[in-house]
Amino acid sequence: MIDFYYSLPIWLSTVIILGMALAIGLGSSLGLRRLFRITATNEEKEVAINLMQVVAAYVGIMIAFTGVQVWQNYAAATGAVSHEAATAAELYQDLSIYGQESRAARGALRAYVGSVAHVEWPLLSRGKGSPATEIALLNVFNEVGQLGPDNDRSTVIYGEALSRLNDLINLRRDRIVQSQTGIPSILWTIGMVGSLLTVAYASAFSPTRYIIIMISGISVTLGLVFLFILTVDYPYKGPFSVSSRELVQLTSEFDRLDRMVFKGGR
For the chain, which residues make up each domain, given as ranges? Predict the structure, then answer.
């Protein structure tokens, strides 16, 4: 079900979420009034208003916390991709210092970056990593391991290269974990039930035009919040998923570095 939602264009998912929010909001208030034939006194209406304010405050805090959390996760995933691309570029530059001796290692790094951008990236929407990409990363590790430092300078550079290679391993692992992480179901349950209760208290009021507009406004507002949370909950799903553009652009960055260091050669 969740995969179906993320396959929809944003305009259609917006229409569906807001339409459902409006239908549920009006149904839970006007429907309850008609179902139980509620005719509230002025005192009961005042109690309903107070209860609505209390529930709305607690639910609002919970939803706000959830919204901030999903946005932080999304921003962290975006920043992690930039960090991964920068680490790969730094590793390639370290390897370039070895000259033609590092040709195989640099080629393996190119293959790994290409595998991440074109093979593994589509799988992240399903919370999976690519075995082929893992093999490509292992190949980078093996090729870098073939480089033997023969003086103090190359020993320092080799240590930096290994450090950045280990960072790449950790960054890939973190990226896959982030692709699997979403809001716990308990938070969804609390948010939706609390929102439903907030609107349901409006059943105490007569269904005048103003009351219907008020209920519709509250319902649409809650729907917009849930739309935002759903859209960015899984950073690698949907039309607003984290882009692989920085990793794709690394190929041209590698080419530029080769031209500067090797005068067109690799």
Answer: 2-262
User: Among residues 238, 177, 242, which one has the least CA distance to residue 11?
Assistant: 238
User: Tokens for 159?
Assistant: 């240590």
| Residues 119, 132 contacting (CB under 8 angstroms) | yes
CA distance 254 to 141: 18
**Radius of gyration, CA atoms only, the chain:** 27
* Count of H-run helices and E-run strands, the chain: 12, 0
**Are residues 25 and 215 in contact, defined by beta-carbon separation less than 8 angstroms?**
yes
The DSSP 8-state label assigned to residue 99 in this structure reads G
Predicted structure pTM score: 0.83
How far lies 153's CA from each of 139, 157, 162, in Å?
25, 6, 15
- 21, two tokens: 């929010």
CA distance 84 to 88: 6
Give per-residue pLDDT as tens, 145-170.
888 777 777 778 888 889 999 999 99
- Report yes or no: 229 and 66 within 8 Å, Cβ to Cβ: yes
**Element (H or E) spanning 55, and its range?**
helix 42-96
Residues 6+ apart with CB under 8 A from 97: 154, 157
